[in-house]
Specification:
CATH topology of the largest domain: Lysozyme
Distance between the termini: 59 Å
Largest sheet: 2 strands, antiparallel
CATH class of the largest domain: Mainly Alpha
Helix content: 40-55%
Number of strands: 8
Order of helices and strands: HHEEHHHHHHHHEEHHEEHEHHEH
Strand content: 5-15%
Structural class: mainly alpha
Strand order of the largest sheet: 1-2
Radius of gyration: 26 Å
Number of helices: 16
Oligomer: single chain
C-alpha cells in the first residue's frame, strides 16, 4: 500500500514539476502542435528519400554515417517542438530580409538557415566563447567585416548590419574554399582551423572530415532546419500566416550628439518607450548615445517632426544638466547622497557612469536628477 502511494506521489510530483518548471501541461493536455510524434510516426518522418542538397551541393545520403548524423539532428529538432515553433514564427520577421540580401548577392538561399542554428533568430544570444548576435560573430571577426564594436555600440546585435557582414564573410570563405558546405563549416570553426584539418586529413570533403563535434554537427543542423522549415506541416507544425511574427516597420534617422546624450530623449521625441528604442537598436549599449554621429531606427509613424521634438528635448536636458551638478561634501558616500536626494543608488551610478565599488571624495561633481526619482513613471 505504501509503495503504491509513493508511486502515485512520484507521478503527481513529476506532472506538477513539468507544469511549474516549463509552463507546459502534462502530455495528455498538450495541444496537437506541441505534442511530440509517437515513436512509430517519428520513424516514418525520419525516412529521408532525397535527393537532398545544401546550397546546391549534394548530400551523400547513401553513406550510412551521413544518414545517421542527419537523422540524429532531425530527431532532436523535431522533438523540441516549442523551439521549432519559435523558429517558424520568427522566420516570418527575419527571413524575407535575409532572402532578399542573398538574392542581391547571388548567393544560395540555404545560407539563411545558418542564422537559425546560430542564434534562433534573436539578438541577445552570447556564446561561452564570446560570440554575439544573430550571426554569432566574435569581436575580432565582426570588426574585420565592418561591424562597430566598442564601449558604446555592438553592431553584432544589429540584425541588418550583422547580416550584411555575415554574407560578406561567407562569400569570402566560398572564394577561399570553393564549396558552400566547407564555407559553412569554416564559418563555425574558423577558416585556418578547417584548412589545417583538410591538409592533415588529405580530404576536402566535409562529410569525410573528422572535425570538432560542433562543426561535425553544424551542416547537419542547418540541413535539419531546412527540411523542417521547408515542409513544417509534415512534422505537425501547422501555423497560419497570421501566427507568424511580421517584420518590424521603422524609419532611419541620423543624429549628431555634441555630448553624451540620454537615449530616453530619442524615445520621448519618437513618442514611444525606452524599451521600444532599445529593441529597435539593440546595438546601442547602456542608456546613453556617445558623442558623435548616430543612425538609429525609430517607429515608422514617428518620423515626421521627430528632429524638431528631439532638438527641443536636448535643449531642455542640457539646461537641466547644468543645474543638476552636485559637489560632494566631506563624509558623504554614494549611498548617503542617494538617500539625501531620494533617488535609487543604481540610478545615481548610471547617471555618473560609476560602478558600485566606486569611491568619491570631497569636491567631486555628481549628476543628480531628484525629480526623476520622484516621477514614478
Amino acid at each position: 500500500m505504501k509503495s503504491s502511494v509513493k508511486r502515485i506521489f512520484r507521478v503527481s510530483c513529476s506532472m506538477f514539476c513539468l507544469v511549474v518548471l516549463t509552463g507546459t501541461p502534462a502530455r495528455g493536455d498538450l495541444p496537437p502542435i506541441l505534442e511530440a510524434p509517437s515513436s512509430s510516426s517519428m520513424m516514418s518522418l525520419m525516412k529521408i528519400t532525397g535527393p537532398l542538397d545544401f546550397c546546391g551541393e549534394p548530400v551523400p545520403l547513401d553513406d550510412p554515417d551521413v544518414r545517421e548524423r542527419l537523422e540524429r539532428e532531425l530527431i532532436v529538432m523535431v522533438w523540441n517542438r516549442p523551439q521549432v515553433i519559435l523558429w517558424i514564427k520568427r522566420a516570418g520577421r527575419y527571413m524575407p530580409h535575409i532572402e532578399e540580401v542573398l538574392k542581391q548577392n547571388k548567393m544560395p538561399g540555404d545560407l539563411k538557415y545558418l542564422a537559425v542554428i546560430e542564434s534562433s533568430l534573436t539578438s541577445q544570444v552570447t556564446s561561452s566563447k564570446g560570440a554575439k548576435g544573430y550571426w554569432q560573430f566574435m569581436e575580432s571577426t565582426g570588426k574585420r567585416f565592418g561591424l562597430s564594436v566598442d564601449a558604446h555600440v555592438d553592431e553584432r546585435r544589429n540584425f541588418y548590419a550583422s547580416t550584411k557582414a555575415a554574407l560578406r564573410y561567407l562569400k569570402e570563405l566560398y572564394a577561399m574554399l570553393g564549396s558552400w558546405t566547407l564555407a559553412a563549416a569554416a564559418y563555425n570553426m574558423g577558416e585556418e582551423g578547417l584548412k589545417a584539418e583538410m591538409i592533415m586529413q588529405k580530404t576536402k570533403n566535409y562529410y569525410r572530415l573528422y572535425l570538432p563535434m560542433e562543426t561535425q554537427r553544424y551542416v547537419f543542423r542547418a540541413l535539419s532546419v531546412k527540411i523542417i522549415l521547408s515542409n513544417p506541416e509534415k512534422y505537425g507544425f501547422r501555423l497560419a500566416k497570421e501566427d507568424l511574427y511580421i517584420p518590424v516597420s521603422f524609419a532611419r534617422i541620423e543624429l549628431t550628439c555634441e555630448q553624451e546624450t540620454p537615449l530616453s530623449l530619442v524615445a520621448q521625441a519618437a513618442g514611444t518607450s525606452f524599451k521600444v528604442i532599445k529593441e529597435l537598436n539593440p546595438e546601442v549599449k547602456g542608456y546613453y548615445l556617445a558623442k558623435g554621429r548616430h543612425i538609429l531606427s525609430i517607429p515608422e509613424n514617428s518620423a515626421e517632426g521627430f528632429r524638431e521634438r528631439y532638438e527641443e528635448l536636448v535643449r531642455e536636458w542640457e539646461s537641466a544638466y547644468k543645474e543638476s551638478l552636485y559637489v560632494v561634501k566631506k563624509g558623504e558616500t554614494l549611498s548617503s547622497i542617494a538617500a539625501k536626494f531620494g533617488v535609487p543608488l543604481p540610478a545615481l551610478l548610471i547617471w555618473n557612469h560609476l560602478s558600485s565599488a566606486a569611491k568619491i571624495k570631497p569636491g567631486d561633481r555628481l549628476l543628480i536628477f531628484p525629480d526623476e526619482g520622484k516621477s514614478g513613471r
